Each structure stands twice: as structure tokens, then as C-alpha cells.
Amino acid sequence: MKTNYTLFFVFILTAFVAVSLTGYREVTKEVAKQNEDIFNKRAILKAVESNLVEADEVDDLEDAEVLEVFNKMESRVLDMEGEEVSDVVAAKIEMKKERKKPEDEQNLPLFIYDNGSEKFYILSVFGKGLWDDIWGYIALKEDLNTVAGAAFDHKAETPGLGAEIKDNPAFSKAFEGTEIFKDGEFVSINVYKAAKDRKHEVDGISGATITCVGVSDMLYDGIENYLPYLEKIKSK
Amino acid sequence: MAETATEKKVREPLFGPKERKLLTDPLNDNNPITVQVLGVCSALAVTSLVYPSIVMAISVVFVITFANLFTSLLRNLIPNEVRMIVQLVIIAFLVTMVELTLQYLNYPVYKQLSVYIGLIITNCIVMGRLEAFAMGSKPWKSILDGLGNGIGYGIILVVVAFFRELFGKGSLFAGSPIELKIIGNTSDYMINTTESVLFGWYTNNNLMVLPVAAMFIIGVYIWIQRTRNKKLVDIS
Q1: Crossing angle of helices B83-105 and B50-74, rounded to 10°
Q2: Tally of domains within chain B
Q3: A159 in contact with B at a CB cutoff of 8 Å?
Q4: What's the number of CA atoms in the CB half-sphere (13 Å) around residue A223?
Q5: Cβ-based contacts of B99 with chain A (< 8 Å)
Q6: Contact between B127 and B87 (Cβ < 8 Å)
Q7: What is the pLDDT of residue B115?
Q8: Residue in B79, B103, B190 nearest the CB of A6
Q9: How far apart (Å, rounded) are the C-alpha atoms in residues A21 and B98?
């Protein structure tokens, strides 16, 4: 009899917990999804922060304003050959999932921000840091060479060291004005201990060498994927 | 059998000295972190910034108070052989509620605390209070005990975070609407745009951002607490 009671008790308790949690989840799901969406879109806008006309800083924007700015933005999805793909929504692409697909099936999101006088092309990059994934957004000016801004994020880099790629605004600011082509050849931007060539190199963070190498690799591989498309708009 | 034992029911006061002791004991004499040394791992991990620490503290207060209440209400029904599992289900239920609520109310902070919200389940303070107190006490007392322990834990969290953020990043409440920059040329120490508030010569101490700093601060806290509170010295 005692076993029966135990089973009964556990069954009732788990049923109660399961039902109430599912109910609560259903109620909050919509808003939570929207919050996540806004969070991701803020991250994308961070790349063009210094050229934003709507506010000085992305954090100053209200949630509704973020969506508004984003709605005005053009977005495209590209495949690895630089062709536009029409049946995928750019904002819904998760780079991590794309990277797991076979190379010729991967899609790349591209966002185009127009501040009235200039257009900015925001590319999405994804790579590995020291501990886990790192990712970021790079904004290119209309010449498709000069970097207008960059924003990085990470999953588990060391606070104070590797995590500075996100926490230290000076790091991403150093990318502004750098160029990804050198004499017409793609060189990407190197994060380097003692950067000399300020057009193609950015000062690394001391104590975070592996994360910085990760950022360099991520930028090289990530931007390289966009090259076919960039060539295409350039030749137009 | 002439006399029937009439049980004299003494009404316990709602907030007598015993109850007050339940609430105030964990703040000092029996603090879960500095005296019982429980829940240290989360105290090391989430305390690099004040704002997430406050959110974490509130979450733990909520979880521990209600877990205590529910366990106490069910204490005579819970079959003894599965009591630990039942306690875990109750805690997990509440923690999931907190997680969903954070996603709903403040997504960026949810992202920042990431796994640590889920890890409240394994916080030894919560389970410890359920086993040691709520299983054998009335609901009202259990609530007070939960509140006391939760706040005792939260105070340490916020104190540690205060020093770590101030000396590690030069700011306070970063990430919240009232972000304050206090000392040093806070965010721009890599490029030379000194935007300092006080003590421009101060360079952020990276050690304070790392979890070890929390260990030192908790150590100093215990030291000060023991010099002021002789009771604690006699116990050990």
C-alpha cells in the first residue's frame, strides 16, 4: 500500500508541476520570443552604432524603435556562390546551425542600413574563441572595403580577458576605418599584438591571445564567404 | 478516566522573538555564505556586476522562500523515501518559473545570468534549508527562514559585486537603466580618449573581474565579521 501511495503522490505532484509550467510558458512565450528577437537585432545594429541617425547609442533605442529601424533596413540572404536566396528570412538565420550544414547549402544573412546619406552593408561572422563560440557583425561602407563598425559577442570567454571583445567598446571601435582589401587583394583584418599597419591590423588584447586569433580567423573566413556577392555588387 | 486531558493550545505569536531570530540569524550569526560556507560557487560566478547580482539575489530569495513554504505545507504528505526527489521537483519548478519570468521581463539579464539561474537548483542553501528546516517546521516559520537565508545570501552577493565592479570596471549598476561610471577612464582605456569621472589615473584591475577576486572579498568579509562578532570565533 505504501508503494502505491508514493507512486500516487509523485504522479500528482509531477502532473501539477508539468501542467502549471506549460501553462505559464504558453502565456509568456510570445513576449519572450519578441524579447529575444529585439536582443538579436540590437546586436546587429551595434555594428553601425557610430553611424546611427536614430540615436547616439543602440542602448538608447526603445524596443519599438529597434524594430522600426530594422523594418526600414533591407536584408538579403545569400548562398555561398553569392546568389540571392528568396525563401529564407535573413533575421532568422542562425549562424551556428548554418556552419554545421554542408558548405554549398549554407546561407549568409546580409543587412543593409541606410542612414539617409550612406549605405552600410552588415555582414555576419561566426567562429571559435578560446572556450566556445564567438560571433560578430561587421559593417562595410559603400565602397565595400572600409569598415564602418564592428560588434562582437561570445558565449564563454574569460571575463576581463577574452570577454573584452564585447565588454570593451574600444576594441570594436578600433576596427572603424580599417580596410579589408590591400591593393585589390583580400587580406581581412588581423588582430595583432603590436599592430603597425593600422589599415589592416587592430591591437589585440593582452592576455587574450587565443581569443584574438579566433577573431582574426573568424573575420577572414566570415568575410571571405561574402566575397562572391561583394564582387558582384561592385561590378554593377 | 475522569479527567480528560484538555490540550492547551498556546497560540504562537506571529512575529515574536523566535520568529525575528529566524529572520535575522542568517544575516549575520548564521550567514549561509560566510558562516555555513554554502552556495559559494554561484557567489563567485555571478558577482562581477552589481545589477545581475541583485537579480540573482531576488531570484534566490523567491525560490528559497516558496520552496520552504511548499515543502512545509506538504511535509506530512511527502513519502519519506522520495522526499529528496520531491524537494528537487519543487525547487526545479520554482527555478523554471524564475527563468521564464526573466525571459519575459528582462531578456538581456537572462542572457547574462545564463546557466546560473538554472543552477539555483543545485544551490546547496536551498536544498539545505528544505532538509534541515522546512521538513519539520510550520509554514509561517518556514517562510521566515527562507526569507532570512535568501536575504543573507543576497547581501553577500551584492557586497562582493559592489567591490568587484567598482575596482574591476570602474562602474556601478552597469547594464541597468542607471548605469554609473565612477572611477578611472572607464571603458576607453585602449584608445586614448580619457572620459574619466574620478581618479583618471586609475587603471581597471582585471583581477577583480575574475572569479578569484570574489574569493578574496568573501575572505576579507569573513575576517571583518569574525573580529566584530566574537560568537562566531568561539564556535570554530
Answers
A1: 140
A2: 1
A3: yes
A4: 25
A5: none
A6: yes
A7: 74
A8: B79
A9: 11
- Give the C-alpha distances (Å, rounded to integers) separating A152 from A1, A3, A139, A166, B185: 60, 56, 12, 5, 22
A36, A161, A170 ranked by CB distance to B191: nearest: A170
Report CA Rg, chain B: 21
Residue B124: domain span: 32-167
The predicted-structure confidence for A66-103, as pLDDT tens digits, reads as follows: 888 888 888 888 888 878 887 877 777 888 888 888 87
* Nearest CA among B22, B16, B15, B14 for reference residue B147: B22
How distant, in Å, are the alpha carbons of A47, A94, B87 from that of A202?
16, 27, 53
pLDDT (tens digit, 0 to 9) for every residue of chain B, 236 residues total? 455 555 566 667 777 888 888 888 888 888 888 888 888 888 888 888 888 889 889 999 999 999 999 999 999 999 888 888 999 999 999 999 999 999 998 888 888 777 778 878 878 888 888 988 999 999 999 999 999 999 999 999 999 999 998 888 777 887 777 777 777 654 444 443 445 556 667 777 778 888 889 999 999 999 999 888 887 776 54
Instruction: Judge whether B168 is closer than 8 Å to chain A, CB to CB.
Output: yes
Question: Smallest CA–CA separation between A104 and chain B, in Å?
Answer: 32
Biggest CA pair distance of chain B: 94
> Is A81 strand, coil or helix?
coil
In a domain, B37, yes or no: yes
Our CA-based measurement puts residue A46 at a distance from the nearest CA of chain B, in whole angstroms, of 15
CB contact under 8 A, B100 and A20: no
Q: Answer for the pair A205, A165: CB distance below 8 angstroms, yes or no.
A: yes
Whether B206 sits inside 8 A of A171 (CB atoms) is: no
Q: Which of A171, A150, A168 is nearest to A51 (CA)?
A: A150
- Residues A164, A152: contact at Cβ < 8 Å? no
B38 domain residue, yes or no:
yes
Residue B94, all three cell numbers? 520554482
